[in-house]
């Protein structure tokens, strides 16, 4: 009985020793992973033997080195400046030279879904017609060209209305387009009561002015005691509505009876833009009679794209060109921006102020506004390097040797030839700039083959 127990214990001891040996051998091989590649298509990689799904050739085992997990170097995040790759940091921040935000750079960046890195020999790249561009600083300029329309300067429009009701007895202008100067007669109204009241205003204006009344104290005192006479300021405002000059006011104040008719005078110079009356017409107080426009300075209304309007501050200089005036341009300055977008065209209207030498810029004239805006230097790549889908934007970066890696990028402004890169690339990175769609197809095929091989 004792010998049986002794033999059982001895056998258990040997089994325990063998188990420990096998565990040690398994741990030593834990980091060893077999890899099989196709001799004709190096991008086809599998973790077990099999055939190439492209050409059917037998996959060849690749030598693998056993690496202890403890000996594997830890990956450390590295942040670099997009404009100056020499500036690096182990933590996020801003570049001390240019102030740009540092971007994460750790080996190959995240590969967009559905794509895979690949290896293309020089001969195959030449066969595809592939060319290479570089991420580098590029000076951007936005050239704006927008439709414009010449309109009158509303601050230089004089609207003449009837001070009182009556009949238009005479017109001293023929029609739209006539030139008038300040102080010229425009029309004469017939209203006996209004004429009498205007004469009384001139008479009271004479009484209220001590200089004109000779400084007679009794006359001034009686003027102040007469409550029916309006204040001097109100009298002056009523008389001024007729457009009398200072000389006429002085003349009629001294001799009110010399005023024979209710004549309306122009209070400014310009062209007759609108004429709303004819001789013999009856008018009421406040009815519009004429619009006098001073066209020595005009406005240009410009419709800017929603993406262009924020780039143009108030005071920015434009150039205005009109197809009807070939070879001539007129400088203008942005005076105001509409606070809303046009719901039909999705454009934002801005107003330019410009001089009108020779009065050649007629209201309603179609024109074109142009402007060049310097946006400064920014990191950029050729526009042909960037591929866009509905959900992602990416480019193909050239790595070491013949390796091509798809890289997700975030882009900014573009001038048509170059595109600003905000994230994903740094200065000095080489990217595929032509045959990008062919490279994209190769990368998508490599991703699909790798997915099939790993099943």
Label this structure with key terms:
rod-shaped; 28 strands; 6-stranded antiparallel beta barrel; 7 helices; 4-stranded antiparallel beta sheet; 455 residues; alpha+beta
Explain the overall architecture:
- The structure is a single chain.
- This protein is α+β, with helices and mostly antiparallel strands.
- The chain is built from 7 helices and 28 strands.
- A hairpin with a 4-residue loop joins strand 24 and strand 25 (403-408).
- Helix 3 crosses helix 6 (246-254).
- The longest helix is centred in the first third of the chain and has 27 residues, at 2-28.
- The two termini are 57 Å apart.
- The relative contact order is 0.17.
What share of the residues lie within helices?
A: 10-25%
Computed CA radius of gyration, to the nearest angstrom? 44 Å
Distance between the termini: 57 Å
> Spatial order of the strands in the main sheet?
9-18-21-20-19-22
Largest sheet: 6 strands, antiparallel, barrel
The geometry reads as: rod-shaped
Beta-strand percent range: 25-35%
Number of helices: 7
Instruction: Give the helix/strand class.
Output: alpha+beta
How is the secondary structure organized here?
Blueprint: H1 2-28, E1 35-37, E2 45-46, E3 60-62, E4 79-80, E5 88-89, E6 103-104, E7 118-119, H2 122-128, E8 132-134, E9 136-152, E10 157-161, E11 166-171, E12 179-180, E13 185-190, H3 192-207, H4 217-225, H5 232-240, H6 246-254, E14 262-265, E15 270-275, E16 282-283, E17 288-293, E18 297-305, E19 317-321, E20 329-341, E21 347-355, E22 366-382, E23 387-388, E24 393-398, E25 403-408, E26 410-414, E27 418-423, E28 430-432, H7 436-453
Antiparallel strand pairs: 1-2, 1-3, 4-5, 4-6, 7-25, 8-28, 9-18, 9-22, 10-17, 11-13, 11-16, 12-15, 13-14, 15-17, 18-21, 19-20, 19-22, 20-21, 22-27, 23-24, 24-25, 26-27
């Amino acid at each position: 009985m004792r010998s049986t127990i002794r033999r059982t214990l001895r056998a258990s001891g040997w089994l325990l020793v063998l188990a420990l040996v096998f565990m040690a051998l398994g741990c030593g091989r834990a980091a060893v992973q077999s890899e099989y590649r196709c001799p004709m298509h190096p991008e086809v990689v599998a973790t077990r033997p099999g055939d190439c799904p492209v050409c059917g050739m037998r996959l060849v085992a690749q030598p693998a080195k056993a690496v202890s997990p403890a000996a594997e170097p830890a990956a450390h995040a590295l942040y670099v400046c997009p404009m100056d790759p020499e500036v690096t940091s182990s933590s996020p921040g801003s570049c001390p030279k240019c102030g740009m935000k540092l971007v994460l750079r750790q080996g190959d960046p995240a590969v967009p879904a559905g794509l895979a890195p690949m290896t293309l020999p020089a001969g195959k790249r030449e066969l595809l017609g592939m060319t290479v561009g570089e991420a580098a600083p590029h000076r951007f300029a936005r050239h704006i060209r927008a439709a414009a329309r010449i309109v009158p300067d509303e601050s230089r429009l004089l609207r003449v209305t009837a001070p009182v009701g009556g009949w238009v007895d005479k017109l001293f202008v023929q029609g739209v387009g006539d030139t008038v100067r300040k102080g010229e007669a425009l029309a004469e109204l017939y209203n006996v009561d209004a004429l009498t009241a205007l004469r009384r205003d001139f008479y009271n204006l004479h009484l209220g002015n001590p200089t004109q009344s000779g400084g007679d104290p009794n006359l001034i005192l009686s003027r102040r005691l007469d409550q029916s006479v309006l204040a001097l300021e109100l009298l002056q405002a009523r008389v001024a509505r007729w457009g009398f000059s200072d000389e006429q006011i002085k003349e009629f104040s001294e001799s009110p009876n010399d005023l024979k008719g209710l004549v309306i005078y122009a209070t400014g110079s310009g062209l007759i833009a609108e004429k709303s009356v004819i001789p013999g017409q009856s008018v009421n107080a406040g009815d519009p009679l004429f619009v006098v426009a001073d066209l020595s300075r005009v406005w240009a209304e410009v419709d800017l794209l929603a993406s262009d309007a924020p780039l143009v501050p108030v005071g920015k200089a434009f150039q205005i060109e009109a197809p009807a005036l070939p070879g001539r341009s007129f400088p203008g300055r942005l005076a105001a921006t509409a606070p809303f977008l046009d719901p039909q065209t999705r454009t934002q209207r801005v107003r330019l102020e410009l001089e009108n030498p020779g009065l050649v810029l007629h209201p309603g004239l179609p024109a074109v506004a142009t402007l060049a805006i310097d946006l400064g230097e920014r990191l950029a790549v050729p526009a042909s390097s960037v591929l866009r889908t509905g959900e992602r934007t990416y480019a193909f970066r050239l790595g070491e040797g013949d390796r091509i890696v798809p890289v997700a990028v975030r882009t900014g402004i573009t001038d048509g030839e170059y595109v600003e890169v905000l994230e994903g690339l740094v200065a000095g990175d080489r990217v595929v700039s032509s045959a990008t769609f062919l490279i994209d197809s190769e990368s998508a095929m490599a991703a699909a083959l790798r997915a099939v091989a790993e099943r």
